[in-house]
Specification:
Elements: H1 4-7, E1 12-16, H2 20-32, E2 36-40, H3 43-52, E3 56-61, H4 71-81, E4 86-90, H5 95-102, E5 109-111, H6 116-142, E6 146-154, E7 160-168, H7 170-176, H8 180-183, H9 188-191, H10 197-208, E8 215-220, E9 225-235, E10 238-245, H11 247-269, E11 275-277, E12 283-286, H12 288-291
Parallel strand pairs: 1-2, 1-3, 3-4, 4-5
Antiparallel strand pairs: 6-7, 6-10, 8-9, 9-10, 11-12
Helix pairs in contact: 3-4
Length: about 290
């Protein structure tokens, strides 16, 4: 989607309205504001327009659309085709209708006859919100930090049993060796059906329940890799994990520690006396043979 002030190209709105006179009035209002308006009298026509016209930037969707599919069904099918901001415009004020639209998309719900000011302000807000979502998505995708979004799945007793992969970025693939097609829509236990999944799932549960620190270091046996993890809740049962593969750094640290241990043992047991002195002659350390 384009942002109008930046590239000065008019934004395209698909107006889905089965009442011809209402559609005409709304079309004129939007065109006076500088938008290019395409109209569709049915949900089926709206879907065809989105498929055929890639220039559409936003959909303004009525709910009652005559004998065909209604606006909520059309909106769901459009979102299966393209990620577009969809704003509902309806005379319905029932809570269940509004809640249903919120479950489909979150770009706005305008009650008909609210006036041109409300209509135009809501559309501008939807464009800004969609642009913010796009920037966040781009940041997520191109971040150099490995990031994964999970959703908890629960056992019959209510305890966390598994974690579904909802979203990963390219850096996650590089850090873990797991590609997006391998993991999206699958769970940790799908990918690692053995007991090796248990400590990972339990760690996530403990962190989100406040029983463990948000930052953890974990050795994962299937990949024989060490990871630094930062785990934090996002919404409802979803949480995000920042992943950094520290296998090489951990191996280097362990090798240094082992080297220091070997040197200390040699220093302590060698029969010749060894003395470490500072530049001014101050003795820093001496092994047992030197002390004798």
């Amino acid at each position: 989607m384009r942002t109008n002030p930046v590239d000065f190209e008019p934004l395209n709105i698909l107006l889905v309205e089965d009442e011809a006179l209402i559609a005409l009035a709304e079309k004129r209002t939007l065109e006076r504001e500088g938008y290019v308006v395409h109209t569709a009298p049915t949900g089926e026509h709206a879907i065809e327009t989105v498929i055929d016209n890639t220039a559409i930037d936003l959909v303004l969707m009525d709910i009652d659309l005559g004998s065909g599919i209604d606006g909520t069904v059309a909106a769901e099918r459009i979102l299966d085709i393209r990620e577009l901001p969809i704003v509902f415009l309806s005379s319905h004020t029932e809570a269940e209708i509004v809640q249903k639209t919120e479950g489909i998309t979150s770009y706005g719900y305008i009650v008909k006859n609210s006036g041109d000011t409300v209509l135009l302000a809501s559309i501008r807000m939807a464009f800004r919100l969609h642009e913010s979502h796009r920037l966040i998505e781009d940041t997520f995708r191109h971040s150099i930090t490995g990031t994964c979004v999970h959703r908890f799945l629960y056992a019959a007793d209510g305890t966390p049993h598994d974690c579904e992969y909802l979203q990963v970025n390219q850096a996650f693939e590089q850090q873990t060796g797991l590609s997006e097609p391998e993991v999206i829509g699958r769970t940790i236990r799908d990918i690692y059906p053995g007991p090796e999944a248990d400590p990972v799932i339990q760690l996530y549960a403990d962190v989100l329940a406040g029983r463990a620190d948000a930052r953890q270091t974990l050795y994962f046996e299937p990949s024989q890799s060490w990871f630094e993890l930062s785990v934090f809740a996002t919404r409802q049962d979803e949480f995000t994990v920042i992943v950094h593969n520290v296998t090489e750094r951990t191996a280097a640290t362990q090798a240094l520690q082992e080297s220091e241990s070997r040197y200390r043992q040699l220093f302590e047991t060698i029969p010749q006396g060894v003395v470490h002195q500072a530049a001014d002659g101050t003795i820093i350390s001496a092994n047992p043979a030197a002390e004798r």
